[in-house]
Structure formats: structure tokens, C-alpha cells
Amino acid sequence: MTTPANLKFMTSDEWVKLEGNVATVGISDYAQNQLSDIVFVEITVAVGDQVKKNAVGATIESVKAAADVNIPVSGKVVEINEAISQSPEVINSDPYGAGWLFKIELANPGELDTLMDAAAYDQYCAERSH
Amino acid sequence: MTEPTVFEMSSPGRCGFKFPAPDVPAAPLPQGFVRQSLNLPELSEVDVIRHFTHLSQLNYSIDGGFYPLGSCTMKYNPKVNEETARLPGFAHAHPLQPIETVQGCLALMFELQEWLKEIGGFAGVSLQPSAGAQGELTGVLIIRAYHRSRGDTRRNKMLLPDSAHGTNPATTAMAGFEVIPLPTDARGNVDLQVLLSHCDDTLAGLMLTNPNTLGLFDENLLEVVEAVHKAGGLVYGDGANLNALVGVARPGDLGIDVMHYNLHKTFSTPHGGGGPGSGPVGVAEHLVDFLPGPLVKIVEEATEEMPPLYGLVMPPYTIGRVKSFYGQFGVLVRAYTYINMLGPDGLRKVAEYAVLNANYLLSKLKGKYSLPYDRVCMHEFVLEGKWDDCPEIHALDIAKRLMDYGFHPPTNYFPLIVHEALMIEPTETESKQTLDAFADALLKIAEEARANPQVLKDAPHSTPVRRLDEVKAARDLVLCCWTPGQ
């Protein structure tokens, strides 16, 4: 799967897509591949919450492991993907699309500069594969 | 699977037991409670015996074959342990009996406490915790009680290496501490620099498994312990891997403040399938008063005519009880027997052969399987179950294929810091012939992965059930009790 060029990434494998002042958050194709079949998702933030970068926003369980999803940017939660808990396998099949988790209205747009761009992230994943 | 369920075997009117005629007058049940059918299977005694005997024969066990399940120490359990646990004086004792009538049981517990102190290098031991994870929680609650007793209430951080068992963070969270993960360095040790960066006056302690789950002895252990102590923290030793050290090195001598022993692993009692376990906790001098009780103590010294009188005592600042009555007594008898049969020299050989067997297997597999942390191992080692030239093969496929060769698979996908982990712990009780046969099977599977990968993807081929749909089992949490005709 090609990494979409318009996304930014955390070292813990979350992606961010910025539209206006709202950031959509999910986990990368590399992350879903490492986790293998995802069986359970719990989004631990709610619409209206003020959240801080690096706090935990969701927990994902696969047949292999459980993993926290870190929040990449501080701000206010404006939407969560209600459908995802019923069909967590969508994160495996469409991590950059229908597999999104939550949306945050940015409090501090400068935080985006701390994230990797797609090319740097691809490089980072390639290094970890060996 | 060829064996039908008891409901499928049911035949109307068949019965394996006749109730005697009532010797009291019959009384009618209230109307609303009377049912016409109960939906229970109807079988004869021989049907039931054969059914459950067949099921037991489908099970894989350490008495049936090699069981190299990493981190679980699936050693053979000597049958003499079962003999002693069934001695009437032990098996028929009641926990509410007057203390004078169970002096033999208490003498065994007292001596086991003393032996575990000696083996671990600790000043006090409580036999109360009923398994390893409860031993962990007990240990961390003792650490919390220690800091609180000194008015040192700022300490809320517990450091955990990223190779730790999942029970460590669970314990930490249950005790109300904040979990701070520590990365593992390139040699498989705790990253000392990151550790040092957390050593301040908010540090409650460190939970350290040594050897760790990579099967490696931490080369900086003394520096790690010293750094935590210097900051005022305590070191919890997770005794999960004591089998590699027993009789050779004592955790207490290495500076560990508190540790649990897994009697069911290191000291050989049957485990798996959830129990029964036993997780006694040993502590250094400064923590003795916080131990959970009751402890067994000599309350009246022996005289020329009389043996000592044993009693049950609560330590002065105890964290309280963690289990009803006196721990998992049947497991204590088995562990006592095991230690007594081996003696000090025998226990040392346990660790030596456990480490030798693991390194023998590793030397046979190295080169054919990738070894991410390439060092001499302790009692277990972790390989990567993947190869660049056959990307479709995963650790799971290798594990499933091993079943066709008659072996229990190793632990897979743990520790999480190794991709496609295969964690292999042969234990000391296996012969060279068994180790050779297991290594040959893994080497053969490595060839099959290239020549005929589909045979791995479709494995197991020879088991009562083929590959189970783990994804469906995890996603579709509906367990349905099915009966014919419904």
C-alpha cells in the first residue's frame, strides 16, 4: 500500500490528515500489518474532550497484541468514528480511509511540525523491518 | 474432531444411576417450579467414561510430549510430588482445624519458607499469594506500603522494561502507580541511559525480570539496581525466570528488594490451563514487616521432650491477607517435595542443565532462524519466525506445523519487541535425543517454508482439529450451548 503523501506520522505509527483546522487520526498500514487481524477497538476519548498530544486516544487489540493509539496533536475532539467498533477489520483493509479513529480541532498547529512526512515515515518503516 | 458432544450422544431414557427409594415422605414442589423437561444429556456410565477418556487423550500434556512453551517452564513434574500431596495428613487437613492438630502441615510450611529464603537470598518469605501475578501485585503493594510508611508519598512512577510480561504493567496500574516503559538496548539489556533519566524522587521502583523474556541476563544488572536504589526506589524482581538461576545466584544478593517465586514453574507442580499456581513472595530485611500474612513461625521453642510448636503470625505492618487461609497448600507440598528430593546440588544442576539445554538448541537453530539478540542465552531464547525469501510465512505457521511433528509449539508473538517471535524454553528435564528431534523438526520446517510453503499455511494436518479461526473466535464472542433438535 502506498503511503498517502498528504499525511503526517508519529514514531508510534499514528497518521494525521489536516483539513482546514481539523486533524483526522488513524493508524498506519505498517501498524495494522504488524498487529495483524484487528478484533477490537475502543476509542477512549469523546466528542468535546480537550486532549493533549501523546495521551492515549484509543486501544486496539489484534489476535497478536494490544496497542495504545497516541494522540498526535492537542485540541478538542470533534468527531469519533462510531462505526469502527462494530467493524474493526476495516482498519486492516482501509487504514488511511474508512479506518480513521477520531478528529481533533487543533489547539496548536505548530505541533504538526514535530511529525514525520510520508517519505520520512516510509524510510522509518523500512529501517524497522530488518 | 471425531468425538461427538454428550448432547449428540444422548439417547432418551438412558441412565447411568438409579436413585434409592426416598426414606422420607414425598412432598410436592410448588406449582411454578415444576418443569417437564430439563434438556440434560441422557447417557450410561460407560458412555460418559469413554467420552471423557477420549477427550483426555486428545489433550497434549507434558506427560505426553515435549512442551517448549517459552516463559512457562513446562518441566516434567516428578510423580513423587503427587504421592506426597496425597498423604492423608496433608490431603485431609482442614484449614479451620485447631493449630495443635496440624503441626505437620505448619512444619512443612515453615521449612519451605526457610528454604525459599535461602534460595532467594531474602530475609522473609510469605507463602500466601496463589500465583505469579498475585505475587507480583503483593510485591508492588509491599513497595507502596514501604514508601507510605516513610511518608514518602510523591513516589508514583514504576519503571518497566518493554520486554516485561503483561502482568507487570497490569500490577503497576492496579497498585495505582504510573507505568513508565523502558526501552531495551541493542544487546537486550535495560537501556541504562533512559533508566537514569527517570531516577528522581518520584520513582517508586523498577520491576525487573532477570533473565529477561529474551532469555538474557542483564549485563548491567548491578548498575541498574544501584541507580534505582540511589534515587530512593525499590527493585521488584519478577521470579518468572528463576529456573535459570536457582542454586547458582541469589536475587537478594544482587540487590533485589522483593521477588515472587513461581512454585508451579521453578519447583515443578503441574500447571497450565490456569492453575493451580503458587507465588510466594520473598523480601529483604527492610520489608519483612510489610509481608502479607499469616506467616508460620515457631511460637514455642523445642525442648528435649517436645518438638517446637508452630503458630500463625501476622507481621506488624502487614499489607493484610491476599488469600483466604494459608496459600495454595497442595502446591506447597509438591514444591517442598521437589526441593527436598533435589537438595542444594540438585537444584543447582536444574539451572545448569536448563541453560545448557537452551544453548544446545540455540546452537543447532542459529543460522537457519534469525536470532535478533545474538548472545549466549540463559534458560530460553527468542528467534524470529520469518525469512526474507518467503515473506508469506509467519511465526504462527511455523508453530502450527510443529504440531504435525508431535511437539507443542513454542510461545509466539511474545516478547513484543521481537518481530514474529518464537520463544523457546526446553527446560532441564529433556534429553539430548528429544532436543535433537525438536531441532530437526524446526530445521525441516525451515526447508519446507521454501520448498512447499502451502504445507505450513495449511498446518496442522495431523491434529484432532485443523487450524482454528482465531480471528472469528476473538471477534464473534458468542458462545452458544447447542442441543440437538433446538
Report a brief summary of the structure.
The complex is a heterodimer of chains A (130) and B (486). With 130 residues, chain A is of the alpha+beta class. Helix content of chain A is 17%, strand content 36%.
| Largest sheet data of chain A | 7 strands, antiparallel
Find the count of extended strands of chain B (DSSP E, 2+ residues): 12
Q: Can you list the strand order of the major beta sheet of chain B?
A: 1-7-6-5-4-2-3
Gross CATH architecture of the largest domain in chain B: 3-Layer(aba) Sandwich
The computed structural class of chain A is: alpha+beta
Q: What pattern of helices and strands is seen along the backbone of chain A?
A: EEEHEEEEEHEEH
Basic shape of chain A: globular
How would you characterize this protein structure?
- The complex is a heterodimer of chains A (130) and B (486).
- Chain A is an alpha+beta fold.
- Chain A has a single domain (8-107), classed as OB fold (Dihydrolipoamide Acetyltransferase, E2P).
- Helices cover 17% and strands 36% of the residues of chain A.
- Chain A is built from 3 helices and 10 strands.
- Chain A has helices spanning 29-35, 90-93, 118-128; strands at 8-9, 14-19, 22-27, 38-43, 50-51, 56-62, 66-70, 75-80, 102-106, 116-117.
- Chain A starts with 7 loop residues before the first strand and ends with a helix.
- Chain B has 2 domains: 80-341, Type I PLP-dependent aspartate aminotransferase-like (Major domain) (Aspartate Aminotransferase, domain 2); 346-472, Alpha-Beta Complex (Aspartate Aminotransferase, domain 1), CATH 3.90.1150.
- Helices cover 35% and strands 11% of the residues of chain B.
- Chain B has helices at residues 6-9, 45-58, 80-85, 88-91, 103-120, 132-149, 167-174, 192-197, 221-230, 263-266, 329-365, 395-404, 432-451, 453-457, 470-475; strands at 124-126, 157-161, 178-182, 203-209, 234-239, 258-261, 281-283, 295-300, 309-313, 381-384, 411-412, 421-424.
- In chain B, the strands form 3 sheets. Chain B has a 7-stranded mixed beta sheet, sandwiched between helices. In chain B, strands 10-12-11 form a 3-stranded antiparallel beta sheet, covered by helices on one side. In chain B, strands 8-9 form a two-stranded antiparallel ribbon.
- In chain B, strand 2 (157-161), helix 7 and strand 3 form a beta-alpha-beta unit.
- In chain B, helix 5 packs parallel to helix 11 (329-365), helix 6 (132-149) packs parallel to helix 7 and helix 11 (329-365) packs across helix 13 (432-451).
- Chain B is globular, with a radius of gyration of 26 Å.
- The two termini of chain B are 22 Å apart.
- The relative contact order of chain B is 0.13.
- The model of chain B has no long low-confidence stretch (mean pLDDT 94).
- At the A-B interface, loops of A face helix 15 of B.
